[in-house]
Write a structure and sequence with these properties.
Layout lengths: L15 H10 L13 H14 L2 E2 L33 H6 L6 H14 L3 E10 L15 E12 L7 E3 L12 E2 L7 E4 L6 E7 L16 E8 L17 E8 L6 H13 L10 E6 L7 E6 L8 E7 L11 E7 L2 H11 L5
């Protein structure tokens, strides 16, 4: 693990040349460099970021030198400590056109936002472990995991509001900023199409009735997405009588996290010899530019009898009408030769 940082809450910020390179990476014009911070700018930067920069676990499975030379089998977890941490992932993300996971992508995105004058808090969230299910009716109930997801809260001088932004959740990612509010009703918005809806509520961590509540409770924010029967568009306001249910994504507290803590969270997720969950699957996923929420993903996990091929598929978008079924399916062998060719052609990776 990395040494304890001498300044645990040091804030990283891109310079003008780095910000220009970032804009080029997400296919936005350099004329934005002199734009003042605003909700409109934040929305534009977030969406373009999600359309161009993938959540990507490949550095955990392939050492960089394995991409050169003859094609060889890809073994999950074989690179282990190769995932960059924090803003040190800038070169991989911006110049090599690759991705990373949340502790790299969101830290780098925060540095980018600060160039424009946004004030950005780097936080950590507790992921929901029964994704897609209704915690009020499913046997899992309120099944929470550990603090393994970095998120951002952005504001700017002169604005009374602050917004949750997340550049690295992956599937079901909210691609718009959503306002933090302590109003009991929370904040509800429609996503990139009428079949996406999200709610952010200020509350203590929700727990099932059979769970022991903590002795000391500090309220935080729960982000959930609305799941309705396929073919049912969402319309505001969403009430208890509206079709569907709220399924949580994560819960977080509005408390800045130190660089030392992010080192620990990163180790738990990416390099712990027994607990590092991200070493167990291969994932590359990003929004399709201009497709209003449609997403292209590549996924592989070792399952007996399924062969060694990664599945590539499209989900979401208005044409899916709320269905999570994959379409336009392709398969890629888990070998460095065909994988390198596919990632370069379809995801723009540079090797």
């Amino acid at each position: 693990m990395a040494a304890y940082p001498p300044d645990p809450y040091a804030i990283s910020k891109l310079n003008r040349a780095e910000a220009e390179a970032y804009l080029g990476r997400i296919k936005l014009p350099s004329t934005l460099l002199d734009s003042p911070p605003s909700l409109s700018l934040l929305s534009t930067l977030l969406l373009s970021h999600l359309e161009e920069i993938p959540k990507d676990t490949t550095p955990l499975h392939v050492p960089e030198e394995q991409w050169t030379g003859p094609s060889t089998p890809i073994k999950l977890g074989s690179a282990f400590t190769n995932m960059p941490l924090g803003a040190s992932s800038f070169d991989r993300i911006i110049h090599e056109n690759k991705g990373a996971f949340c502790f790299s992508i969101n830290a780098t995105f925060a540095s980018f936002l600060r160039y424009f004058g946004f004030t950005v808090s780097e936080l950590v969230g507790r992921s929901f472990k029964s994704l897609g299910n209704d915690p009020l009716t499913h046997p899992d109930g309120w099944k929470w995991g550990t603090l393994t997801h970095q998120i951002l809260v952005a504001g700017w001088p002169g604005s009374v509001d602050r917004y949750l932004v997340d550049g690295a959740w992956g599937p079901c990612n909210l691609a718009k900023p959503i306002k933090l509010t302590t109003d009991p009703a929370g904040e509800t918005i429609i996503g990139l199409n009428d079949f996406e809806a999200y709610r952010l509520v200020y509350e203590p961590l929700p727990l099932s009735a059979h769970m022991t509540p903590p002795l000391d409770v500090v309220p935080g924010f729960t982000l959930s997405r609305r799941i309705a029967p396929v073919g049912t568009p969402h319309a505001l306001p969403i009430t208890a009588a509206s079709p569907g249910y709220w399924s949580p994504l994560f819960h977080f507290h509005l408390a800045s996290v130190s660089l030392a803590d992010f080192v620990l969270y990163h180790h738990f997720s990416a390099s712990h010899p027994e607990l590092a969950a991200f070493t167990g699957f291969w994932l590359v996923t990003r929004l399709i530019p201009g497709a209003r929420g449609a997403r292209r993903s590549m996924m592989y996990a070792e399952k007996e009898g399924e062969g060694r091929r990664a599945k590539v598929y499209t989900t979401g978008g208005p044409e899916a009408q709320g269905s999570e079924d994959g379409r336009d399916v392709e398969w890629v062998e888990m070998e460095t030769g065909p994988m390198k060719e596919y990632l370069a052609r379809e995801f723009g990776f540079k090797f």
